[in-house]
Amino acid sequence: MMDPSAPPESLLARIHALEEDARRLQEENERLHAHLAGERGRAEEALRASEEQLRMAAAAAELGTWRHDLATDLFSFDERAQQHYALPATSPLEALIDRVHPDDRPRLGGEIGAALDPAVRARVSTEYRVVHPDGAVRWLRIQGRVEFDGDGPHARATQGFGTVQDVTGRKVAEVALRESEARYRRLFDSIDEGFCVVTVIFDDAGNPVDYEFLEANPAFNKQTGLTDAVGRSARELLPELEEEWFRIYGEVARTGRPIRFQNGSKAMHRWFDVFAFRVDEPEQRRVAILFTDVTEHIRADRERERLLGETEAARAEADAANRAKSDFLASMSHELRTPLNAIGGYVDLLDLGIYGSLSDAQRTSLARIGANQRHLLTLINDILSFAQLEAGRIEFDVRPLSAMELVASVESLVAPQAAAKGVSYATEPCDPALCLRGDAERMRQILLNLVGNAIKFTPAGGRVVLSCDAEERWVHLRVRDTGVGIAPEEQERIFDPFQQVGRRLSSPTEGVGLGLAISRDLARAMEGELSVESMPEAGSTFTVRLPRG
């Protein structure tokens, strides 16, 4: 209290001082209120920003919220949760239970029961399926907790709240991944090829020095002979393993370039066909290796090469021997033809009476000598032709030839033989404009062989016909007879050298079996072919086919 006895001036001064203190306190109070208002505004703005971020994050994650009032058993859902459950904003517990997939209800009930137990108070964190009214099945993930009134085992649960998220896409992906992994594992375990994944180990200088096996399929053991390889290194399993393997796999791990190669290992006593490629991240230096033990194939290839070399050498030796044989036959045939021609000449001179007249008996003997001389000469000529063909010494003058003229040129040479045998010989008219490409001398040789054989193998009273016809690219010269024919199983064999297939059961035929072989070789040398059509007791038709001229 003021002293009433104090001087008035002193009292006024004190009053002014109090007023000044009050003013300063008022200003300080206003500044404090302004600061507090600013802080509250900033806090409210930060709260609004945080709430917006939370809202955006929840929207991005398709996160909904839910609240369960345990007193009324009503659930409250936000808009997103309503979409997840296909339920209205406020729904009874029974409606939610109806949405849960029947197979998931027992598990979900157990987890919620643990959350409602005051002695446990577990947080809810689980995934389950719901079935929408349209039959669509969705996977949901819920997280939340339960609030209790009081503490201890007798506390009363009042409400539950939390979030719900649609995780169907992830679940589908997980199922697809599991199925893919199962397919991979079945393939991994069932393929016959060995397969493994290794981590290549490098030293401080960056050189590959080893590799460790991360996984291996069952065929790995069979293909390599190694057991319990996973978790161990190559050097541990095979101390003598060649450096080449480390270098190759190190290059694949370093560059990422796959490689296919074959390589042998003395340490494993095997050869392998290998495909290696990098897997996972480059810095992990992992290489997948698909391989097959090809040791037996390599051995078989080497044996085949050895046998092929021996076969080639034997073939070359056989070819040389064949050429020597052909040379001998050609030389011998030439040497034999000379005296045979002389014999024929002297027979003709004797027959002309140059050395005096001959008796009938002498003329008969002379005729037999001449017939045998001609027969031997024919055989020698056949052998000579065959030897020349085998030796490749026959030259061909291939040019357009008139088919009609070829047919006509044969008649005068074979008519006496046919008449002597009592066989009718005829030709059918050819188109005068029809030409073929061939060597005239060789073509006459073929036709004489074919017509001569037909006369030889046709019984007296039979018939032999020479004809020609043509198609777009080919000319056909055909020799038909009315002989006893050739059995189907013998028709190809008659073209083999030194083969004679008797078409008559009585009387052996003349010759050494070279005529048809020579004729077919000559036809083929002129880009043609010789074939036969025949049936027993129905005669035969031999056809020479040559390109049109």
What would the average pLDDT be, to the nearest integer?
Answer: 86
Strand content: 15-25%
Q: Given the helix and strand composition, which structural class is it? A: alpha+beta
- Give the helix proportion (percent range): 40-55%
Kindly provide the radius of gyration, computed on alpha-carbon positions and rounded to a whole number of angstroms: 56 Å
Outline: elongated
Low-confidence stretches: 503-509
Which terms would index this structure?
five-stranded antiparallel β-sheet; 549 residues; alpha+beta; 13 helices
Produce the secondary structure layout.
Blueprint: H1 8-60, E1 63-69, E2 74-77, H2 79-85, E3 90-92, H3 93-99, H4 105-116, E4 124-131, E5 137-149, E6 156-166, H5 168-190, E7 194-202, E8 208-216, H6 218-224, H7 234-237, H8 243-255, E9 259-265, E10 270-279, E11 286-293, H9 295-351, H10 360-391, E12 399-402, H11 403-421, E13 424-427, E14 435-438, H12 440-456, E15 463-470, E16 474-481, H13 515-525, E17 529-534, E18 540-547
Parallel strand pairs: 13-15
Antiparallel strand pairs: 1-2, 1-6, 2-3, 4-5, 5-6, 7-8, 7-11, 9-10, 10-11, 12-14, 15-16, 16-18, 17-18
Helix pairs in contact: 9-10, 10-13, 11-12, 12-13
